[in-house]
Amino acid sequence: MKQKPNAMQAALDTLHKGVTDLMTSDGWKRALEFRQRFHNYSYLNTLLILAQRPDATLVAGYRTWQASNRFVRKGEKGIAILAPLLVRDPDDRDQLNLVGFKTVYVFDLAQTDGEPIPQRDSPRLLMDTPDAQAKLAGLQFRLAMFCASKGVRVSWDFQHEHALGVYRPADKHIAVRPGLSHTQAFKTLCHEAAHMLLHTGSERRDSAELEAETTAFLVANALGIDTSSYSFAYLASWTDSLEDLIQAGDRASKAADQILEQLHADPDAAAADPAVEPTTNPPTSTSQAAGACPPLMYVSS
After folding, report:
1. Is 149 exposed, middle or buried, given 0-12, 13-18 or 19+ CB atoms closer than 10 A?
2. Which of 97, 206, 214, 287 is deepest in the core (most CB within 10 A)?
3. Please, are residues 159 and 290 in contact by the beta-carbon 8 Å criterion?
4. In angstroms, how far is CA 122 from the centroid of its own chain?
5. Where does residue 136 rank: exposed (0-12), middle (13-18), buried (19+ CB within 10 A)?
């Protein structure tokens, strides 16, 4: 795929200058939290917005703001992001081919005047709601059903001194340690579900763990589950390439969106079922959990 060199290089230069701490655990978390405001944008464009206007809350193009009866103030500097550069296929006029990227500009709400825009409420921490445990149990159930729809069985019988869960691609099996809190069990299942969606067992462990933990963080953050305990220890050891990091964030973002789409389909349905208590279910595959692990597997700790 050809890329428009000037636009892409300018974007990377902007990131190198504006997001200097991206390769630290705290910097990575800050970028992921920022991404929550702009989930309709690619991960790369989210980082570009963060680098140029870290206080941005809602961005749109010039004409989009006009259509909402808001107008960009004179002299405001646009936020440069990338848009696909499409050309019509000469052999099929209905087919558009991606040949690169071009620079386009968006503006933050604070750069405009006009009719008020409805304010979005900040997500309330799920643990602060009176039925938090029932909701978490329901989310676990829905996520387990999503894994089952992908042909992957989930059991709550993983026995390990330190690790909380495992995904074995060869067996199409996710196992989570029994007895965890609903919060920790859900986070662990999210992590292993990310491995299910993204990895085959041939990837480097550090890159795979970064993508899986990033996916779990994005899902938890979107649902209002406390993310203060998350850390990204693999970040510094994996790569010093900004391009690799952007690709990992983009893959994790897409996996998180896929999981959230399933969980949001009817988030209260499973929680309404008093029989749904995944973390307290008896083991369903103790013999397999206690046996020798296949060589290709992903373990959560």
Report:
1. exposed
2. 214
3. yes
4. 18
5. buried
Helix 242-263 and helix 25-35, axial crossing angle in degrees, nearest 10:
50
Q: How far apart are CA 76 and CA 298, in angstroms?
A: 48
**DSSP code of 272?**
T
| Per-residue pLDDT reduced to its tens digit, 159-217 | 887 889 999 999 999 999 999 888 899 999 999 999 999 998 888 888 899 999 999 99
The answer to whether 211 and 252 are in contact (CB under 8 A) is yes
Q: Where are the alpha helices (DSSP H) in 73-181?
A: 132-149
pTM, full prediction: 0.80
Alpha-carbon span 270 to 273, nearest angstrom: 5
Whether 109 and 117 have beta carbons less than 8 Å apart is answered as yes
CA angle 59, 99, 240 (to 5 degrees): 70
> How far is CA 270 from each of CA 55, 56, 143, 152, rounded to the nearest angstrom?
37, 36, 10, 19
